[in-house]
Amino acid sequence: MTAGWCEHPIYRLATAIDAREVSVREVVDATLSRIADCDPSLRAFTTVLDDSARVAAEGADREIAAGRYRGPLHGVPVSIKDLIDLAGVPTTAASQVTGRAPATADAPVVARLREAGAILIGKCNLHEFAFGTTGEDSSYGQTLHPRDPTRSPGGSSGGSAVSVATGMAFAALGTDTGGSIRIPAAACGLVGLKPTFGEVSCDGVVPLAPSLDHVGPLTRCVRDARVVYRAIRDHRGGESAPTNGAAQTLGCPRPYFLDRLDDEVRAVFERALSRLTDADWTVEDTPVQHAHDAATLYLHLVLSEAATIHAATLEQRPQDYTPAVRLRLELGRYVRAEDYVRAQHGRAVLGRAVDAALAGRDALVLPSLAIPAPPLGATAVDVGGQTESVRSIMLRLTQLFSTTGHPAVSIPCGLTSTGLPCGLQLVGHRHRTDQLLDVAEAVETALAGRS
Amino acid sequence: MEEPLTRDDWLVAAKTDADRRGLPELKPLLDALADATRALRAASWNRRAAGPPARLDAADPATRPDDPR
């Protein structure tokens, strides 16, 4: 009976824990049991924290019994991408390059989750150093898609996504440098939030490209994403009034963003837009000027910064990287400084272009991922009759907003004919992540046919 | 006076360096990077960038000095 809780959203579980309908220990035991059943085949975790999770659960039960309930994350099992420091546990980045010495302190985001009473259930597998979109390059093996084991769950936060999608955690922390939260969220049918750049601390997180790196939650619904976001963000104010599902105005940037889409992804997205307009939402076409430059900007920024971060270990231990990640890092050493500066200039131009597209609108709406979860081992896929590199097409719709720092969230919007999830991406005004979550919750409600 | 490095010179030098370092598999990626850099320099907003790009290839519109306006 307790195992049934594994599928519930946080807000329902929290109500039950607060009312003492279920103990935290029961929830943690059920979650660990689910991990024991599922993870040997899915490989979502690098470390499972059985003992410390049970000890923390007993402590949480004692606190709650004593009337010290901390709030909606108290007693809730949460998983952490293994790029983020958790005291006493190695941060592996899914690489042989990192040592296996335990981290000496929690990253601030982890400390905040503990403060909120979350139970840290384990650390999650990822694409090595978060430098990839499929999870295929990992010293812990490939994480498999929960609905089709011949496919990737997306990445780089693939383990985090799979842990939540399969009931092995109620929420997960991921990181997003070009789409690494939103891509696996879309591929696995979850909500994935990339907050505004700088709102959530990246201290204690192995960097990929510091000017692009974000930390954010993967959850089963928008309401849960907001719970985790509010717990981990630096700034505690600025909460907006709920919109109560009222219809709003969205801008759809069709040029570039809808130019290259898998046919089924396109059909699912267009059906979602129709449901919104049927529910009295206004959806206006609004191009983002220069959007076609997004990929080249992102490439010059991420390659340069990642090569800088890894310069010493590329010299000392190049053989310890997986071959594909090593090559990508080596490539960054050939980007010229003047082109990095040009890309930084372009980032400012594109940031203003996204601001202009958002003017007078609540959010931009577009797909999150141009293809369904890709087959394992594929380096190229056919998209609308054209051959596209898997890496390029997976980053195509997300990388711009990592570059400009706008908040963006992926929510599920339907399934392909073979049952693979598709994601709808909403992009909000900078420094208004809470308002973006209001819009996302209203869209989620409209797509579910609720009023 | 030293001649400026053209984009093609750079690509040849980069591939030679990749071979020297035992990384021949880097060469197709360098071709892709060269294409991306060409696109970056050709971006219309670069004409309004602060300061002209370095001289690379006078015949290449992507590397012509910025419009002073």
In terms of per-residue confidence, which ranges of chain B show pLDDT below 50 for 5 or more consecutive residues?
52-69
Order of helices and strands of chain B: HH
Question: What Rg of chain A, in angstroms, do the CA atoms define?
Answer: 20 Å
Question: What is the 3D shape of chain A?
Answer: globular
What string, H for helix and E for strand, traces the elements of chain A in order?
A: HHEHEHEHEHEEHEHHEHHHHEEEHHEEH
**What is the helix content of chain B?**
40-55%
The largest sheet of chain B, given as strand count, sense and whether it forms a barrel, is:
none
**What is the strand arrangement across the widest sheet of chain A?**
1-3-2-4-6-5-12-13-9-7-8
Q: What's the main sheet of chain A like?
A: 11 strands, mixed
What is the count of β-strands of chain B? 0
Report on this structure:
The complex is a heterodimer of chains A (451) and B (69). With 451 residues, chain A is an alpha/beta fold. An eleven-stranded mixed beta sheet of chain A has the order 1-3-2-4-6-5-12-13-9-7-8, sandwiched between helices. In chain A, strands 10-11 form a two-stranded antiparallel sheet. Chain A is globular, with a radius of gyration of 20 Å. The model of chain A has no long low-confidence stretch (mean pLDDT 95). With 69 residues, chain B is mainly α. Helix content of chain B is 43%, strand content 0%. In chain B, helix 1 runs antiparallel to helix 2. Chain B is elongated. Classes of the chains: A alpha/beta (451), B mainly alpha (69). At the A-B interface, helix 10, helix 12 and helix 13 of A face helix 1 and helix 2 of B.
How does the SSE layout of this entry go?
The complex is a heterodimer of chains A (451) and B (69).
Chain A: H1 10-18, H2 24-42, E1 45-48, H3 50-65, E2 77-81, H4 108-115, E3 119-124, H5 158-165, E4 171-176, H6 182-188, E5 191-194, E6 214-219, H7 222-232, E7 249-252, H8 254-257, H9 263-278, E8 282-285, H10 294-309, H11 311-316, H12 323-332, H13 337-358, E9 363-367, E10 380-383, E11 386-389, H14 390-395, H15 399-404, E12 408-415, E13 421-427, H16 433-447
Parallel strand pairs in A: 2-3, 2-4, 7-8, 7-9
Antiparallel strand pairs in A: 1-3, 4-6, 5-6, 5-12, 9-13, 10-11, 12-13
Helix pairs in contact in A: 2-3, 7-16, 10-12, 10-13
Chain B: H1 7-20, H2 27-42
